[in-house]
Amino acid sequence: MALDVHDRIVTIIAEQAMLEPGQIHAEMSPTDLGIDSLGMVEALFAIEEAFDISIPYNVNEPVQSDFDLRSVGSISSAVAKLVAAKG
Amino acid sequence: MSEGEAPGTTASAGRQSKSAGPPVQAAPVRSQPANSSGPRRVVITGAGTVNALGLDVPSTLAAFREGTCGITPLNFRDVDRLTIRIGAQIHDWRPETWFSRQQILLYDKFTQFALLAAREAVAQSGLAFDGELGLASGVVMGTAGGGLHTSDENYRAVYEEGKNRVHPLVVPRLMHNAAASHLSMEFGLRGPAFTVSSACASSNHAMGLAFQMIRSGGARVMLTGGSESMLCFGGVKAWEGLRVLSPDACRPFSANRNGMVQGEGGAVFVFEEYEHARARGAEILAEVAGFAMTADAEDIVMPSAGGAGRAIAGAMQDAGLNPDQIGYINAHGTGTAANDRTETAAVIHAFGDHADRLMISSTKSMHGHVIGGTGAVELLACIMALRDGVIAPTIGYQQPDPECGLDVVANAARDARVDAVLSNAFAFGGLNAVLALKRV
User: Fold this and answer.
1) Taking CA atoms, what residue in B is nearest to A55?
2) Cβ-based contacts of A38 with chain B (< 8 Å)
3) Which residues have a Cβ under 8 Å from the Cβ of B65 and sit 6 or more positions away?
4) Which residues of chain B does A44 touch, with a Cβ-Cβ cutoff of 8 Å?
């Protein structure tokens, strides 16, 4: 399940970053991928739609949001938790 | 028959012309061209408003002095489906108090807001627009969403409720120029009349154009300002998507600020050519001394200190004011991380050393972000500063932010004499509009 989530996240982020999925690695940050704050909002929207979840995120305080956006891997883990919580 | 005139028009309010008048009548040539003492000057001789702090100017200014917060839990249909549920909503809005049944059918809320504000402004000015003055007078209003309530309600009716019929007046209710047109009809303003839409800078652009029009001789009196009624399900849902709204409070320039809070309402002013106002002994609230507008030409949502700074410097230059003459700036101050940091940088860029000696505050912390009407509501704080010597505070301020290190008049109003002020408005799309006002 978690692996499946990760693959789908990579696909979504790759599309936002205009890269091939093979170029995306778990340790990369949105900044590494050239994704700015508006790009992040768009990527999160795509993830919410794909998994039917709500991601708590406020552009004004990204660090304090209850969702770890520091890397592709941390995003995958956080999404996996939200998907699991959905049941 | 003009395009906007319905066939077989009945006596419905607002759809009946006030008087026929001569068939063709050009705007009268100005009797007093720009004279040897310089270009025409423009003054404000009337002000009116409706917003979450009050339904007129005195109650709004009292709230500014007290540092009252107009932000409350939102109350409208489907609010439970929103993530953000606070806003500066006008909860006691009772249109039947001010408008007939026919008018309510014809007026979206943004038009109602504009009309009520305009009635207060025109009454204060003491002007009547019959005869020649009506031909030389007009209206420029700002709005970002126009008749958004009407759109929201009718999309819901046809898409969600599956209705196949909408009210016949949907189009004249929702059009962005509805408020400007109804102002022209209610007061008999027969000169230039139109609406400006530039998101959060709409009403500053509108007031700037009205100012320029009088200064250039294109009109003698202009009603101008802006109104917005975006507090409905669709209006807030769209903003939620950007993830820039605060879930709890608007705290401009505070280090712990976490976003903007939407508001609703508007304000309307009577801009009048100075000699005309003086000749009739009108009470002058302030002089509109300068205006500048710029475009960042960079990003659709991220603001630029360069573009904003050029508008600030441009307004001072247009007004013939030096930076050290400006005592107060009503900030755009949305309470987002990006705006407040960028606006501070722009002020420092435009003012140099004087940035540390002027006062700046964001009244959005009290009346919320009135979007296309916000600059108009905020101009009231500028007039209060000039006339009453009271600087409206930035409420909700909790933690200094080194990136917003100006004198933000935190939490409590301050008594101070100022002779000239600026009002900033910076819009999504990178559009900046700054007005300069001074004491006459």
Assistant:
1) B243
2) 300-302
3) B384, B390, B392, B413
4) 243
Taking Cα atoms as reference points, which of B363, B375, B436, B369 lies closest to residue B141?
B375
Q: Is residue B205 part of a domain?
A: yes
Q: What is the pTM of this model?
A: 0.91
Q: What is the CATH number of the domain that holds B217?
A: 3.40.47.10
- Does A61 sit within 8 Å of B242, measured CB to CB? no
Cα of first residue to Cα of last residue in chain A, in angstroms, is 12
Range of the domain at B317: 42-438
The predicted complex's ipTM stands at: 0.86
* Active site (annotated) includes residue B200: yes
Q: Which of B149, B176, B276, B332 is catalytic?
A: B332
CA-nearest of A71, A46, A47, A69 to A58 is A69
Q: How many CB atoms lie within 10 A of CB B101?
A: 11
Q: What is the pLDDT of residues B302-322, one digit of tens each?
A: 999 999 999 999 999 999 999
Contact present, B264 and B51 (Cβ < 8 Å): yes
Architecture of domain A2-86: Orthogonal Bundle (1.10)
pLDDT band at B92 (very low <50, low <70, confident <90, very high): confident
